[in-house]
Write a structure and sequence with these properties.
The structure holds two protein chains of two kinds. Chain A is α/β, with parallel strands linked by helices. Chain A has twelve helices and twelve strands. In chain A, strand 3 and strand 4 form a beta hairpin. Classes of the chains: A alpha/beta, B mainly alpha.
């Protein structure tokens, strides 16, 4: 039996895909899996996404923000989802969402910059390698890509504008990255024959490096153009995150080389009158994730995809004086896909037992990373889950 | 051995080598981001010796900051980036352009001290650091290090402002030893701790940098064989007295101006020269720019241009009217965002510039720059192609792909031949090699 990628290579060998996929080799089934990491930048207010509907203190601490309870999606006794998260609620009911409560790390850092570094490197405070790896640009996904990457290049792809996040860097090297849909085209006025002549394999030293770079760049550009041309089947909402996830979905459907994908949704630093902007962000997230899942379900690819949604910290339980929330500690992480063990994991936050006014973490992010590396990507975890963490069973 | 070293730094021409168009172009590309055809002609006429003297003299006193006061008032990152890149793009003939070697050195030090606004988050402090690098970057390297150790942006970037007697933070001390002055293998973990103690006590409040004696660890320190109640300057002196220091600076000069891969013999010879010149950067660099090693055939055209080198050279050689903010955008997309080096080690350069994503961005940049190319007035397309190629890589052989360009010009007869030719030339590998 052929794995999907082999099939694609053989099935499409007459077309234009083959020369573009020259770096690709057949890989075992597990390697057909993709991990799509969605970063909610700014510190998502987890307590207003996953709603502790049975905890009186939540209503008391959040007189304005708890208004979302009335229209919440009720998942189970005492557990609700923000009204804007319809698609996620629906997927949860179908067993395609694993909700992991209280993910964080010891000595929570409330600086965006530091906390992002910690999540991106997987090195928690007190780890002597932590600051070093942040400055040397060693991200946990970049290191995972290096371990996956012997077979297919690029193993990781960031879709978005600007500098890719540290998580995807490896040894200071940036990951392959493509901007959103509109600037993907490699516009040129030059005919193909001239372009080919300009990138003739040439010479030694820097010249040789350059012609290799030019070919690799054209290959990546070609792959992505190829992906952008693939017709979408689901109804995708408009929006930047949708565009980026649609490109990821197309790349996965085509079986292109990357196993790790990253996208970002910014704007979650909601200190001020947060109800409306937070709702808009969650609606954008939900719409894009819903379309992404529908797209891959339609093509039969959802079982080999896992989406991880995370943020650098949650927010304080207490609503601040301006209808917003300030930087907190742990937050919930969501996994979406056909292969996840749907339902709740970890411990629900107990608002009567706070530390410093924050929900303390109950699952160490290192345990999450170790589980994803081992159970989803088939890698030996780079570092074991810290001693004493309850084993995570996030995949069916 | 030492005889061979010094031979590398013997003046080019002492064996009868000729300083022709290709040589003058090589010098101006590496030292000052390329040149207009007129600037190239004047360098050729003046000769190597005088041209280097002139570059060095102008770099000693770079002109002040037109628009600098506006930056202090508004302090927005895009403004500072555009200001910075604008200085490298200033057209030949003007006062700013004459001091472009100071600009080149400033970029070298920007990559060396590699402070990023990503963490500093204050473009005014960043701007002040870059002004410091420009002002002191050609002088005594030891004075530069001493000044940098109390620079506001650097103190934030490497947590120096958090380093106190009771609660030491070693980040700045470690990078001082590892990245700024010596390199790994020349110091111990004890040296890092002791240096951190000596660097304690500095604070940054708003944009004010000040020394708080109450936070300073005034005790006895032992650092690289020196001891005493060392303070910031004492730490800098102890570190810079280490024999590895001149070699570390020489390596930076060689990797910036000569070649991407290490050249240990040349680094050793240049370190010796730096010691002899009492750590003065510009006189040392002058020796290098006049040397046989600098003009070695294996070196010329064998270095991958940084995005800024690529963009600035196109601008100068083709006379493109390129707005500084557009140049910032092109450089950033190709992996060189000013004020935002990718890591504490700065921009890796060399093969790292040729990352596929960065290379896609260069392709887009080639097209965008080509659209700025002036129409080749009064010239047949092929003549224009020859002229521009000669301006971009003067005195070099015709590239192997040239017949393909001629053929496609004949076949396609493009509506805008100027942009068509310029795009081909700017996509060519020759445009990305210095």
């Amino acid at each position: 039996m052929l794995c999907r990628r082999q099939f694609l290579i053989q099935g499409l060998s007459a077309g234009v895909v083959l020369p573009l996929l020259s770096g690709l080799r057949a890989r075992p089934d597990r390697a057909d899996r993709a991990l799509v990491v969605v970063q909610l930048t700014g510190g998502n207010d987890s307590l207003n996404c996953v709603l502790p509907l049975d905890q009186e203190r939540w209503y008391r601490e959040r007189p304005t923000l708890s208004g979302v309870a009335a229209k919440a999606h009720r998942l189970s006794a005492g557990l609700g989802l923000h009204p804007a998260l319809s698609a996620l609620a629906e997927r949860y009911r179908r067993g395609q969402v694993a909700l992991l409560h209280g993910v964080g790390y010891p000595q929570p850092d409330r600086s965006h910059f530091r906390s992002l570094d910690i999540w991106h490197t997987g090195r928690v405070p007190g780890d002597p390698r932590g600051p070093r790896e942040a400055q040397e640009r060693q991200g946990w996904l970049g290191r995972a890509a290096a371990r996956l990457g012997a077979q297919a290049q690029p193993a990781a792809l960031f879709v978005g504008e600007g500098q890719p996040p540290l998580a995807f860097f490896e040894g200071g090297r940036a990951p392959a990255a493509v901007p959103g849909r509109e600037s993907l085209e490699q516009r040129t006025e030059l005919p193909e024959a001239l372009l080919a002549a300009l990138e003739q394999p040439g010479g030694e030293g820097a010249q040789g490096l350059l012609s290799e770079a030019t070919r690799a760049a054209r290959r990546l550009g070609g792959l992505m153009e190829q992906a952008a041309r693939l017709e979408l089947r689901a109804a995708w909402p408009r929006g930047g995150l949708s565009d980026r996830l649609a490109l990821v979905a197309r790349s996965i459907r085509l079986g292109l080389p990357p196993s790790l994908y990253g996208v970002e949704l910014d704007g979650f630093d909601t200190h001020l009158s947060q109800a409306r902007p937070h709702e808009r962000l969650l609606a954008e997230l939900d719409g894009a994730l819903g379309a992404f899942a529908a797209e891959l379900e339609h093509s039969g690819d959802l079982d080999r995809v896992c989406v991880l949604v995370w943020s650098e910290f949650g927010r304080r339980v207490h609503e601040n004086g301006s209808g917003g929330t300030d930087h907190g500690a742990a937050g919930a992480v969501w996994l979406l896909g056909g292969g996840v063990a749907g339902g709740e994991h970890g411990q629900r936050p107990d608002l009567e037992r706070l530390e410093d006014g924050d929900v303390p973490y109950s699952t160490d992010l290192r345990a999450l990373y170790a589980c994803l590396e081992r159970d989803w990507l088939g890698l030996t975890p780079e570092r074991p889950a810290p001693a004493g963490s309850a084993p995570l069973e996030l995949f069916a | 051995m030492s005889g061979r070293h010094t031979e590398l730094l013997l003046p080019f021409g002492s064996d009868g080598e000729r300083f022709g168009r290709a040589e003058a172009a090589h010098l101006l590309r590496r030292a000052v981001f390329g040149a207009s055809p007129e600037r190239l002609a004047s360098a050729l006429q003046a000769g190597l010796e005088a041209t280097v003297s002139e570059l060095v003299a102008a770099a000693k006193a770079p002109p002040d900051e037109p628009g600098g006061s506006g930056i202090e008032a508004f302090g927005l990152l895009p403004l500072v980036q555009a200001f910075l890149v604008g200085r490298a793009l200033a057209p030949d003939g003007g006062e700013l352009a004459r001091a472009r070697l100071a600009e080149r050195l400033m970029w070298m030090w920007h990559g060396h001290f590699a402070t990023s606004d990503h963490k500093v988050r204050d473009a005014v402090l960043m701007h002040r650091q870059l002004a410091l690098l420009r002002r002191l970057g050609g002088g005594d390297f030891r004075a530069l290090v001493r000044a940098m150790l109390v620079d506001g942006a650097l103190l934030i970037w490497l947590d120096g402002a958090l380093n106190t007697a009771g609660d030491p933070n070693e980040n700045l001390a470690r990078e001082l030893l590892e990245l700024f002055c010596l390199g790994r293998g020349h110091y111990s973990e004890t040296d890092v701790r002791e240096a951190a103690r000596g660097l304690s006590g500095w604070r940054v409040e708003g944009r004010r940098v000040w020394f708080d004696p109450a936070r300073f660890d005034a005790g006895e320190k032992r650092l690289l064989g020196r001891s005493g109640p060392l303070d910031c300057d004492g730490v800098a002196d102890a570190v810079l007295a280490h024999p590895a220091a001149p070699r570390w600076v020489a390596r930076r000069l060689v990797s910036t101006f000569v070649c991407d891969s290490p050249w240990p013999e040349l680094e050793a010879a240049l370190a010796e020269e730096l010691r002899r010149r009492d750590f003065e950067v510009l006189p040392t660099l002058a020796t290098l720019l006049r040397s046989r090693a600098f003009f070695a055939p294996a070196v010329r055209g064998n270095k991958i241009a940084s995005p800024l080198e690529f963009v600035a050279r196109a601008r100068h050689a083709l006379g493109l009217e390129l707005a500084p903010d557009a140049a910032v955008r092109l450089c950033s997309a190709a992996g060189q965002a000013p004020l935002l080096p990718p890591s504490v080690k700065g921009w890796d350069g060399g093969a790292a510039w040729a990352h596929p994503n960065a290379w896609l961005a260069r392709g887009r940049a080639a097209l965008e720059l080509a659209r700025l190319a002036p129409a080749p007035a009064g010239l047949e397309p092929l003549e224009a192609a020859h002229t521009w190629a000669e301006n971009l890589w003067p005195g070099q052989d015709r590239p192997a792909w040239w017949p393909a360009l001629e053929q496609s010009l004949r076949r396609a007869a493009p509506a805008a031949p100027g942009a068509f030719i310029a795009e081909a030339l700017l996509r060519a590998p020759e445009a990305h090699l210095v």
